Amino acid sequence: MVLRCSGDDSFGPVLDTGLASECYSFDFTLVFEESIFSIAPCTLVLILASIRLYEVRRRPVVVHWPLLRSIKLGTYAVQAALQLALLALWATDRGVATRTTIASAVLALLSTLGLQLLSDLEHRRTVHPSTLLQAFFLSTILLDIPRLRTQWLIDDSGVVVSIFTATFAVRLVLLSLESIRKWKSTTLTPEQVAPEMRQGFLGRTFFLWLIPLFREGYTRNLGMDDLLAIDDDLKGIAPYERLLKSWNAVDRAQKHSFTTAVFRTFLPELALAFMPKLAWMGFNLAQPYLVHSTITYITFHKTLPVEYGYGLVGAYGLCYIGIALTQRWWMHIALRTMTKLRSSLVTIIYKTMLTIRAESGNSSAALSLMSTDVDRVTNTTYFFVNVIPDLIQLVLALYILSTQLGATAVAPVVLVLICTGMSGYIGQLVPPRQRKWMAAIQKRVGITSNIMGSMKGVKVAGLSDKAEKQIEELRSYELEQSTQFRKLLIGSLLLSISSTVLMPAVTFTVFAIVQQVSGGSQFSVAQAFTSYSLINIIFGPIMSLTGAWTNVMSAQACLDRMQTFLLKEKRQDYRRVASRTAKTSPETGEPVATSDNSSEKVEISEEPWIKVRDGSFAWKPDASPIVQNVDIDIMPGELTLIVGPVASGKSTLLKALLGEAYMLSGSIEITIPAEIAYCDQEAWLLNQTVKENVLAFEKYEKGFYDEVIQACQLNEDLEHLPKGDDTLIGSKGVSLSGGQKQRVALARAVYNRKPIVILDDILKGLDADTYSKCFTAVLGPEGLLRRNRTAVILATHNIQLLPHAEHIIVLNEEGRIVEKGSFDQLSASEGGYVNGLGLKRSDIQQAAIVVAEEVEEEIIEKEAMITKLQSIKSQKGKSHDTGIDSSDVPSRGRRNADALIAYMKSLGRTNFLIFCIFGIANAGFSTAQPLWLNVWTSADQLHPVHGTGYYVGIFVMFGALNMIFMGLQFWTFMIFIVSHSAKLLHKKVLKAAMHAPMSYFVTADTGEIVNRFSQDMTLIDMSMPGSFVMTYTQALNGIAQVILTCVASAWLALSIPVLFLVLFFLQKFYLRTSRQIRLLDLEAKSPLYSHFISSFEGLAALRAYGWTKRAENESMARLDDSQRPYYLLFCIQRWLTLALDLIVAALAVLLVGLAIALKDRISPGLLGVGLTSVMGIGNVLSMLIQFWTQLETSLGAVTRIIQFEADTPREEDGPDMPRPEWPDKGAIKVTGMFAKYGDRTVLTDINLDIKPGEKVAVCGRSGSGKSTLIMLLLRLYSPESGSVVVDGVDTATLNLNALRESLVALPQDPMFLAGTVRYNLDPLGKVSDEEIFDALEKTGIRSVIEEKGGLDGDLDTDWLSAGQRQLFCLTRAMLRKSRVLLLDEATSSLDRQTEAFVDELIRTEFKEWTAIVVAHRLKTVAEFDKILVLQDGHVVEFDSPGRLLARRDSVFRMLWDLQES
Question: What residue intervals traverse the membrane (predicted)?
């Protein structure tokens, strides 16, 4: 046996050879091994075990596995006995011992006994293997390997080494036992513990819990139900409560206070990530030493023991494995922090949204905070984790560099300071540019969303081309702002990169000059490549630190926007809840209810439930009151009607009763719990089923539910729907007709059984029969609400309902109450408003017929379309929305090859080719630098200082050209190519949407359409460009690094095919799952965002019903669902990074092993090239996969755009443009027209001949085809057969937009475009201001417009009441130059007086026009030229009103008599 060198009793750390060259010295000293490898870990584990024991002992027993417990305890006992034997041997001098041996043995024994106790508790009280025990045994096994080797090298009798070997073996057994999963023996359910939390230290370190997910993703398509659960710390409530606590603790008036709160909240996680990050930094800094030692060994290997070479191989393995594991841990902690941060930010934004004033913002701006800004903030987490460790690594690397190059090491510092200073200056300019860009995005998305949601109005008004042009102009402006932002970004990026790219050139140039001047020593190979490796190590921190400035500033700008939102004015409920004498529930405070025929009665007192005294209300605190000096008493069980002219303040008064307006004076007192059922004029519905909308957050009671459906006359409607009340109604209830929407909202109000119900003209637009039955069953004396003694407040234009109300409130134009009381009281009051109406009590049937007949055929039309909606959603496989198993959808995990090709085509061939050339040149000159450094150092060995200028000049030239081509590469892509591509892709989706037929918008989810313009465009504009450039760059760098690594030894090239084969199968296994999870991540965000938008739009209703807490819970559930794919996507990315790092470790070990084996034939310089290159391969591969992952996420957006363009049907457009003056007469001839919706014929053999200038009223019962006729005239739908000829031109041959521009139509729902008042009134820009003001004067809204800024002021429809909005649209129609006017229930939201005013305008202002009007009230069309009566899709009458009224058998006369009675 070889003798050991002296020094075992010293700390060492290595044996000292001294003068005895024949002794064995490649080993640590015994004192060092015992102190560092035994005493230190045992002491640490005893401390940690004590803390852990205190924590675990209070937990309940959750695991019952007595056999495993007994085996563990027995093994610990064996280990303790062996350690006791070792202690006895060393204590009796039966082995080689030092001054630390006894202490080491005692602590080892104590640690075993302590861990035995901890193991017993951990076994029974935790469901996962003990992290502390696994980490201790794994680390001590690794540390005991050199100790075991040392014992075998010591000349001993063999007893100690045998026992020591046995303890090592037992330790391996203990590690195996402590790694056994106990999950199957637990008493907990799978839902209580996430799969990750069931794993121990090793399982979590190597992501073993992800293997089932990878296996499932590789073999089949994944759905949301297949995703693994995540632990509670990553869900919404826990992180939010932490953030809220910090937010409440800061001074909110201070600038950046929300940023401070966020930082304080997650500081513990950031600090925890620092520890593995610092360890990673230590392993990283060890690489230059290994490079130096390896090159030195190869150079002088003949004078050094061969064991040094073997030691270098082991050191490389340890170093690179250490890098892999520590990077895995700090990045995983960071990603968990990101997930928590996202959860807390989304939650606090949503909860704040529920408290702000309903009119204080828009949903698109708030949604942008919740999506884009939150993502930007969370992605900055890595920079926060890196800042301090990067600074430390930078300082230490520079110090080590100074040991190689002396004072020259200051050169990189100077270069970095210059670049950082300039980058910092540019960074200050970034937030303002970014804010402009974000504002442009918000404006475009908001306007696009409004247009897509109002597409029927846009098409009817003939404004499709104008709307498309407006969106394109907004897109162009947005891209201009993004280009300005990108220019700064490129400048900042190039300055950041220049300090790294030019650093080798600057450093070695300065060093060469110093050496030349001072006459220093040779520039050795070891010195050169050690320095070069240090410079490579410096690259990362510098890139991170310089990039951190821009990213942190960007994140701070996002957090500041969130702070502005969080500090928006909150809604202050000024209503006072007073005590009352009625019996209430002791648990809920609500009225005591008793069952009576499936409804409920409430025992009440006869005191008012709402008292308003001298109340004045407005929508701004400093504005004039809209409703003033109001005194109201709302009594239980009474129907209160609020009537008045347009803009009299009826809706404002209702909102004031809900606490939504500003109370300028007076008081409101509520003597019941403040939960009120509320229905707005525009029904607020969720993108859920009919049943879910009716139930809302209440439990399902079949008996009462059926009674409510019957009362609201929804039975027949549900029979028409393919899935009955389980049919999805689409965004904003797009799949339902207007009347159906209102009745679903009314059913929700009835079903929820609140003591007060407030209805804002909820029954408008119902056909006579439905109106009558609905009013009787719900609001009549024996209706559900009145039977339950519910107080009902209804604002209405239907004055014939007045006799049926217990209380009437009449408002005038100034918002004052001019009359109030019962019908009998007001009828008897001479000269009063009600008295002047001359109304008499009549039954509900007669009163209801006066209401406008709803377009009931929409039910038939949409039946077929809803069926199509269900099939489309099934094909998409969105299990969250439809319940369809997404595993049925093919190709979810396939590559996005088509999308990548499509994106590359959008880049432009010439510019893209130039970009590729610049990238290749960039990679080529970067690769040339280390090769030239080898040439330089080799030449310097032969001829010191000779030709230094030549070698330095070439080296600097390569660096400069590298920088120049990199700048050209970035500039070409980000400035020229991105704008071209972004505009082209946006145009594709815009044209597809704008030219889709109306039937498509009936079936499509508006939210999904808007996502193409918002979420997908965000990916294409923000993520896609950077991801594409960096993927291409890193792919070229990866090829270059592999080539450089192989130059050291040709034998290494033999491993490259194996390497590529491993990488091929690795990425194939990984990407098939990652693609699916990325898609699921996007899909899971949609319900979250849709719920956010719906909640924002229904704020008043949510608060009125008292549902804000339930809405929060719903949002939290959707957030938790979206957190799963979000977190799992990060986890599988980290798994891939770990796998790549371990592959690089194997490559590094193989390279060094070959170098050691071939030390006589390998060049030290080329070995230096290979070793410095292998240092970067892991980072390059990791960045390549990271950017490819980001690119694939963005490519998903391109895929959706391609699919959207391909799948969206296109309207059948005609080839011809009409002559400029067409239609100049207004003659309309309809011949042999048949129309179908699905399989049902809705119009049969329609033949009409309408003379120029005739006024034609279209009448008929619901479902007779009235609106279908109007839609066919505008070609919103195509007929099965037949033709429409206007002034001699067949409309089927005309361009659709030109046709709709030429035929002026007013739909039931007013339509507005974003922009000025002038733009909305004259979007075609064809009339003068005088003409506009004249038209406004005639419609009576000129004063309103002038008060709000005139024609050049931005139009805010909140200025206008529902009636004024319709008058505004009528003004727009008056300004159009045409001879054909089409009105489809355009006066449904007008009171009788205003409707008469509109009818007079039609007769006078459109005197020479041909008008076709779907009749609202028959008396208003008595002077028309013709009456067209439809019945079951057939023309039954077409004659003058006089002739039809003169006929006893006339259908028109029957309808007339019924109304007039």
Answer: 35-53, 73-91, 97-118, 130-148, 160-180, 308-330, 380-401, 407-426, 488-514, 534-552, 912-932, 952-978, 1042-1066, 1126-1158, 1165-1188
